[in-house]
């Protein structure tokens, strides 16, 4: 259907064009702008008043002139064509295929802006997701329907970690033991915003080489793409995820990198529109804008599908109090923090033990979900590693020779914890039973009477056999 069309522009300011027509125009409506050569470029309405409408282009303004340009209001929001053919496809940030194939065969189009989930319709997340990574599964467990971001820094291996999660993530139907479980694979929606070409190529090559691309939908908005495309990309990705989860009843894992690039684009667009800046120049609505993305994850009663989010953001100057990680932490249910010091010591993945947490972990572990001892082992590992940090600080002041025997045992535990439990290969997939067994082994480095957070029956069942077998790294 052809929309309302007007001739002439009032002003052209970079990627934003101003027209005096605003009758029957809606916010976020898609607009087609034609230059004198009939070249067509799309944009969307970003601001309006009674007398004018501001349109931001998905591209540059080359060839546009105020007198000879035409503006067509299409009367609909930005939409994504969805269908069963989504899986295995690669799209740009606007949902257009870039893999050499045509549009998917479907007549269904969804508004990319989505709709907020009614809180009453939400189901509390309780199902364990196995990523095969001990630092996450054992101590910061990911739950189906959760939003668990990864806080990283420039140069840290967050891209490798994200690719590993995409390869290995599975749903475990636990029967209370560490073996004999049937696994159901995830469908993954991967969205990259503002990444360089070599980073995008790394992900695509990894997905193709490991054979997971057939179960992945990829949205790529490269660093040279317009800022507005970077803002639309995660909305397209989440729209595809909602279709797969709630229409096709699939379990969807959404990995979005890098949210910092998204927020930088939001700041750029806000500056162009002349809005009053807030903290560090970001718009005052940064919190609500991020929440509009993060809150599209979850489980809905009446649907067997689910959407789990892992947003990845690089903290500027490794500052966790920066507005982007700070606000993300308020909205999401925990965070995985990558530590530069661990990375420099060769630990992969360099997951910081103490700043990382998963707020929904307590409801998705234990008998019938992972293993009966999971909660106790995790709590004891956290407590012991916290003591290691204190002992290391003390040793830096008085010297390691002056430490008590008990403190020296904790130092040894800290080394084994980082070398054996945290460190694993990039292609090493550990099930939850293996992860918990490794946790018990490293706990044998501290005295038995220090295991204050573990029930005595678990100590007799798991701890004593390791000591009796001499399989405790000593």
Q: Features of this protein?
A:
7-stranded antiparallel β-sheet; 3 domains; single chain; Rossmann fold; 12 helices; 474 residues; Bovine Mitochondrial F1-ATPase, ATP Synthase Beta Chain, Chain D, domain3; 10-stranded mixed β-sheet; 23 strands; Elongation Factor Tu (Ef-tu), domain 3; alpha+beta
Summarize the structure.
With 474 residues, the protein is an alpha+beta fold. 33% of the residues lie in helices and 23% in strands.
Helix/strand layout:
Blueprint: E1 4-7, E2 11-13, E3 16-19, E4 29-34, E5 40-48, E6 53-57, E7 70-77, E8 79-82, E9 90-92, E10 108-111, E11 122-123, E12 128-130, H1 134-137, E13 142-143, E14 150-152, H2 158-168, E15 170-173, E16 182-185, E17 187-195, H3 197-210, E18 216-222, H4 227-247, E19 251-257, H5 259-272, H6 286-294, E20 298-300, E21 306-314, H7 323-331, E22 334-337, H8 340-344, E23 357-358, H9 374-398, H10 405-422, H11 432-443, H12 456-469
Parallel strand pairs: 9-18, 14-21, 14-22, 17-18, 17-19, 19-21
Antiparallel strand pairs: 1-7, 2-3, 3-6, 4-5, 4-7, 5-6, 8-10, 11-20, 12-13, 12-15, 15-16, 20-21, 22-23
Helix pairs in contact: 2-3, 4-5, 6-7, 9-10, 9-11, 10-11
* CATH A-level architecture of the largest domain: 3-Layer(aba) Sandwich
- Stated plainly, the CATH topology of the largest domain is called Rossmann fold
Number of helices: 12
Mean pLDDT, to the nearest integer, reads 88
The major beta sheet can be summarized as: 10 strands, mixed
Q: What's the end-to-end separation, in Å?
A: 75 Å
Structural category: alpha+beta
Which range best describes the helical content: under 10%, 10-25%, 25-40%, 40-55%, 55-70% or over 70%? 25-40%
Kindly provide the radius of gyration, computed on alpha-carbon positions and rounded to a whole number of angstroms: 25 Å
Would you report the number of β strands?
A: 23
- Report low-confidence residues grouped into runs of 5 or more: 174-183
CATH class of the largest domain: Alpha Beta
Tally of structural domains: 3
Label the overall shape.
elongated
| Strand percent estimate | 15-25%
